[in-house]
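Handout, section B. The chain below has 662 residues.
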Amino acid sequence: MHLLYEEGGDIKVATVQSASGAGDTESWQATSLSGKKIKLKAKEVWLRFEKPEPQALMDEANVLSKEIDLQFLWDCAPDEEFGLVDVAQEYFGAQASISQQTALAIALQGAPVFFRRKGRGRFQRAPLEQLQAGLAALERKQRELEQQAVWQEELISGVFPEMMKSQANQLLFAPDKNNLAYKALIAACDQSGESPAQLMIRCGAINSPLEYHQGMFLKAHFPRGSSHDENLTVEQAVLDAAISELPLAEVTAFSIDDSGTTEIDDALSVTELAEGGHRIGIHIAAPGLVITKDDALDQVARTRMSTVYFPGDKITMLPDSVIAQFSLDEGAARPALSIYVDIDSTGVIDKDSLQLRAEMVPMGSNLRLENLEHLVSEESLADESANYAYRQELSILWAAAKLLHAGRQEQRVANGLRAEQLGVVDPNALARDFHFHIKELDGVQRVEIAPRQRGSILDTIVAEWMIYCNSASGRLLADNGLPGLFRTQKGWGPLRTRMQTTPGPHEGLGLDYYAWCTSPLRRYSDLVNQWQLIALAKHGITAKMVAPFPPRDATLMGIAADFEACYSAYAEYQDRLEKYWCLRWVAQDGVPKQVFVRHLKEGMSRVEPVPLHLPVPELATHPRMTRAEVSIADVDLLQLTAGVRVLHIETPEVPESDASPT
């Protein structure tokens, strides 16, 4: 005997192996068509029959079910609940065969628009209004499937459908998986074997892999766009009122930056003291005088947390108009928060001379590294006949900078770290900083990547005095019990370097306190610290009563966590685009490209001329910094990968003293 039953919405047949019980309690041990051993109870069985054979029955029933007129069946069915056998006799006649009854079971089970399931083998026809609505939905679904098929065919052929163009970014970066266009896109990708990004680039929906990388970042961090609201400004009258009572500093300050810097946050000044020695001024742009906690500009800055830097462009934290009002541009007095400290004739700092002032600082010059760096040397600084701007001031700053560096290295060694070398690094070492210059020629972008010199005198002067400023700011906040955003580094592990609201040492820099404050136009942490420092400059020991953030402020703790996360994401994006442009550099003159690489660790190597890291498994067993000539090909700008083939591995030279005697 065979049994017809339903499982998981499907009509199935099983062959009885044994039976037990009787009547309503009867049950069977049976074998399904697939060979599965099952147990069925009387209430689960729709039909019992001896012939035909199960497989022949299902083959015939599946064919017959497609011929059943569901609308006619609905017309024939009674209003009340009915059983399979009852309606089979109405539709096929009193002698309805097992095959016909099975076909009807399949049709009824698969037509929820026409018939409601009321139990195993029992149904009730749907009300007319619901039937009409269901049929309309089926018709709509069919039209959608036909439209999806049309779009899918266009995508496969390399044409992006006109009706999908307005959804291109959403389809790629924030898709609604129930959307018809998305279903067509995914179906086309499945057919072509491409990713959505690859297919959309081929169809011209996005212009390039670069647009894809940028779009992913913007969708995640700037979903409303990276442009600033044009109405977000500082009224000139508001600015004038904020700076009207600021004293005019009796200095002439100058900044030192590369030519691409438009947000000039910091400047230096050197003033001779009557009693001997000099007063060094570190002047920081002061947007915190006008931007206040929770105002419109603060909300934008807090959302962005930092200016985003990447090859070829940047996304500023503050609007350009606000940057222009506070940038320490030459030719006028600019509002600044200044730290002053006295040094003697040898450059030794008098720690007790530290002063903090909010003031207007006359800006004499914006010096550019490209124009000056090659002129500045130990010899030229000592040569009074050397003819370049601020030679004497730079000489004084350099003498003190060397002492600042030496003092930090002593502390690094005390912390168990190796002392860092002052000056230009080993010319044979891999360059760590690069300048990316992207230009367009005949509609094609090309990239030039050049190493940026680090450790020059000018670079060291700026670095050491800004480190000192951040350290002194951290000490002022700590000594006066003001919370801030302190950059600390202690111990080892992934959380070794972190942002926190209480003071702590920075072991890597060799400092007891370190609070970023020198870039308030570019980093939100620096703007927050500037607010606290302005309160200290204006109110002294009562600053805690008026500072925007009191001790143990929960908001400040949240800002510290948000800043860390955002700053890390921005750095990752910068690294991603730098890798993109490095691969463009590899491919722009044709591949394969032959270059030299240096092995770092675990088979990962770096291309010597550019900051491109690629896996080279052949070097995994070689010592660190092993040099090899390789051929790079198969550049994938979407996945940011490339194929590397080793041409030659150089054998390290053995010093004569280590060579074996002949």
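Note. Residues 657-662 have pLDDT under 50 and may be disordered. Compare this with the example in section A.
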